Amino acid sequence: MLGSMTSNVPLNELGEFLKKRRSQLSPRTVGLPSTSRPRRVDGLRREEVARLASISTDYYTRLEQGRMQASAPVLDTLARVLHLDDDERGYLFQLAGKTTTRARRRGVQKVQPQLQRMLQDFTSVPAIVQGRRGDILAWNALAAALVTDFSRIPEKHRNYPRLLFVDQAMRDLYADWEGSARIAVAQLRMEAAKYPEDPRLIELVGELSMRDQQFAQWWGDHRVAARTVGTKTLNHPVMGEVTLDCDTLTANTDPDQYMTVWTAAPATPAHDRLRILASWAADQNLPASSGWEA
Fold this sequence. Notes:
By secondary structure, this protein is α+β, with helices and mostly antiparallel strands. It folds into two domains: 2-96, 434 Repressor (Amino-terminal Domain) (Orthogonal Bundle); 113-284, Beta-Lactamase, CATH 3.30.450. It contains 14 helices and five strands. It has a five-stranded antiparallel β-sheet. A hairpin with a 3-residue loop joins β3 (230-236) and β4. Mean pLDDT is 86; it is low at 1-7. This is Helix-turn-helix domain-containing protein. Residues 20-41 are annotated as: Disordered.
């Protein structure tokens, strides 16, 4: 009996450590939106930590109560969410009886030179290059005119799925915003299966889960989707309503890097409107990218 009681001591200590650390963090510290409602607990709530870590509230509650063992990937995620330093992270792993390992960091992505040259040559076709997680690596001036002026967005926030959920102008742009947003979530799910320990992907999912209930719901549906061709109807402030073909081209030199282009068949109203947009973009002198690293 004594042995079974003492065997839970490390788990209880781990739970107390997690509670203490979340009580010392404010929502603003981890990038959560502030609210006017009074908070009944100091620091973060259990459900906030769980969402930021992309795990269920029940799972996290069991960890704090010493009723469940945590896997190394979950511990690594919690260490990032709770802003633990190296010593605290090591202590967390020690309490859980796990060997501390760092997830392998992937190299910095930089737009492939061939894709950058294609962007520069596209004067009548909007195009952007995206990388892992939907990070926007590069764009041409016409894409800035069609979608948004990406140069005005801080580099760390230049992510297409994020913009779909947090930028009201992007919500207004898509006639079927919900359909486009659902696809973006499903594509993120597909990437999460490929890179389950990508810290920036985990951070992105946690942030959007906290900011948007629809994202949290759709993420929980576990639907997946690959990037394919299709059509998008946009409510554009200059062109009005227009339906464009949307195609995705994957770079052979970096399979995690792809170009999205919007086109229209010649001699169609949509094609004429793209030409009008190109003329407007030239007058506005909207900047194209010179190649952004992410």
